[in-house]
Amino acid sequence: MGQTFSQDNTDEAAKVLVLESFTKEKITRFFQLRCVHLLSPEELSTLTSSLDLTSANDRETAISYAQVAHLLHLANDVTELSTSCNEAIKLLADTFTVLGSLPFLRDSVENVEWPLTLKGLLIASAVFSGRIRRLLGHKYDYLKLLYIAFAASSSRANPPPVEKSESDPEKSSSPSGDDEFVVEAVRPPPDREDELDDTLTARRIKWDTCATIKSYDEIDINSLQLKASDFAKILAILLIVGSVPKKSHRDMQAQVQQSLKEKWTSFEEAAYSVLKYFDLEVDKINAKQISVSYEAFRAGCKNGIGSFIIDTLAKLVNGSIFSSITSDGNAEAGDKPPSTEESPKSPSKTRTSRKFEESRLINEPSIALISLALRNAGTRHTVDTANLVQLYNGSQSGFSIRSLEQKIFKWHAPTVFLVSGKRLKQKTINTNRRYQQFDQEYPRYFLANENSQKDWQANHDVLTYAVFVHSPWKSSNKKNFGDEEAVVISLSPHFDYYKTKPDPVLQGKSTYFSNLGMGIGFGNDQPVNKNTIRKYLPGNVSLTIEANLEFAIFRHISNGGPHTTTYFEKSTQERLHDEDFEDRFMITDIEVWGVGSNKELDEQRKQWEWEEKQAKARQSVNLRNTGEERAFLEMAGLVGNHGSGGSI
């Protein structure tokens, strides 16, 4: 059949491999077949039903972005969504188009008219759902693949002037369908060499060593441009999908669709905060002129955001394209869980829960950012509208330490402390005596004649910080309290997080609450308050709020010396990691929210698991009766014609 390339010193696995050559058309067909077999018959049945496929003619019909929105359960009618939200869904649909051209990515990258077909949708779904790892392994750089898809989608949304000439081979580098490609394949048994069909050949090929896939079709990654404004739209969709906990499928889908329709603007604002984690210079004004390079994308994905992107895309696809429970709420009769009397194994009915009411600082987008920070910091805690309870709101209860103490000290569970305000203007610094008093008591790091404001810090910034406090609150005028699960989070204008630095001596005791006139501190040593001496002792990474709850300072010093305590780790943002800066602001809002029991979230998750089990059981019965898998393969044009390539 072919010449083996094994050597005497290679392992047994290598001895059964041969090199075989196939045309581009054949390679594409084999890869499509292999991706189809990564999906279960139940999932293929669901996809066929969702697209209402009835004939072989459907397999080459272009799938519109509105159909993608319907398949992903993002919208039943895209005309009800804002222009920006529609643009985001188009970008997401285009990423399906790009990934659907695997293994020959240049086909879609270089041709903005390349359509999304059923076969492409299957390949892209295999990538997004994570099933493609069975072919390409865990060492494959999926983030690089996603960047290519995002950047190419951005280019498709903003196509450059056409310069390509068909007569110019240098500008038409994509291989033709007749070009031959060499791949590694498992040598078939000698007695079956004459019986090979496309399905068996597709399984024999070692796709993880395929040169076209390993090289990303030789695309120059540095030549791609992902517009910051387009990346923000993609991030906004991911924040919306990621913010929905597992619960009844219809409830999940309804929440996603409601957020896209009614809360898009606020989620997009949150997305721009995350976007600054990739590039601090980006804002809504210049986002259309700035591109996120692959280097910046890679750096931003290092500390958890990359896994968030991958996991959320998988959540989106697995919960929609392959789910038989539709987003319009018209589920089959069996979708409602039976009563406990009928089935002791069914989930208990969800108790009537209190209605969540958002505030100025806590809403679904800010909760999504807090959840992202806690996830990246590696904590085991979750926050959601179902387990957050408002304990204190300064605009309602008054801005005083005494009022704050009365509201939060009785809560013996984790809390989220939020403080927000406007960056101090020079006029306030020069004339406000209360601030000047605070400034005298707060040790200066920057010289008096030094401009400490960085170029990425704008005068009009609204600064919002959140602190996840795991330990119960208490008066701590002599000794700090806390543990190593505390996390300081920057919510705006840029997303960042500062997790507790493990230390056997400090033990995470990073918080103090002073009712003797020294305010609240996170990441500080105990302030000095003796006789006429009042002095704050801020840590290298710290948030300090003065006693009148009027001013606050966030400090980030990359190397404060041996005499300054470090309770929290430095920024994980690449540019800020080694930068010294401060955020000084006048407080406009303070809120404290209790993180309650996860009982309701657990009940919702059980409901989700039960629905998954029931849906798969129904699909399995239907498939046994109809032979849906074979029909789907024939309809997609992936079975029926046999043949394989030659070996070398």
From TrEMBL:
Residue stretches of biased makeup (Basic and acidic residues): 333-344
For this protein, the parts annotated as crossing the membrane are none
Which PROSITE patterns does the UniProt record give?
TLDC
Where is the TLDc domain positioned along the sequence? 360-596
Q: Which InterPro entries match?
A: TLDc_dom
User: Cross-referenced Pfam families, in alphabetical order?
Assistant: TLD (PF07534)
Origin: domain of life: Eukaryota
Give the region (Disordered) as residue ranges: 155-197, 328-359
Write down what this protein is called.
Answer: TLDc domain-containing protein
